[in-house]
UniProtKB/TrEMBL annotation:
Its main location: other. Residues 15-62 are annotated as: Disordered. Residues 136-228 form the Enkurin domain. Residues 203-230 form a coiled coil. Keywords: Cell projection, Coiled coil, Cytoplasm, Cytoskeleton. It is found in: Cell projection, Cilium; Cytoplasm, Cytoskeleton. Pfam families: Enkurin. This is ENKUR protein. The gene is Enkur. One of its GO terms (cellular component) is acrosomal vesicle. GO terms for molecular function: calmodulin binding. The keyword Disulfide bond does not apply.
Amino acid sequence: PLRYISKLRELAKHEAEKNKSQWKTMGPAKVAVASPNDFLQKSSKEPKPAPKKKEQDGKKLLPLSVPPRTYHPVTHITKNFINKNAIAVIKGEPLKPRHFCVDTRQGDKYLLEPSGLYPKYIKKKSYGVLPKYLIRRNEEMKREEEEYQASVLEQLKKKAMKVLSEEERTDVLKALKKNWEEINRAYQCLPVVTDTRYKRMHKEELELKLQQLEHDIAAIENHKRVYIANV
């Protein structure tokens, strides 16, 4: 098959030859130098105001609607402030005297209300009423306590012991007796002389199993109601 040739081969070759000797020195071959006429001038970097609007198509801009300094508005409204103040005083509520407390014979006095001697808080409508946030918090605590108690009861129900029925009790007893017979048969088949360590360990293991089975069989036979824990 023909060898694969990329379509961009000539373009890549041209780019490589173009930038081949550009960075041979400490910088690019040609650096754009600013013109001497473009020097930094005073206030050249400060923001400039917007240019003024010029007259467009020979139309003059309308003058500002600001009255001249010689303009004096005509006012025909006159108010009698003396009568107005007198009416306000007559119709207004009289000032209530402030309560003071004198505690020395020289006449030193201070306001009674901010002193703490005047019972103004017990006269409030909300005095002795439980705040709303406390009522809401107590309700939340009560609800959480009920949920916790319900979860505890649920766990106790799950962990409660199960009572074996008479049929299950009989089946378990038969299985234990059958197991005891098998282990007893194996125990009877042991050699008379136990001269090795393995024989002694095997004999002791069978004896322990027989003792445990006998204990379980006696416990089930002596008790009509058997409880099993759900582990």
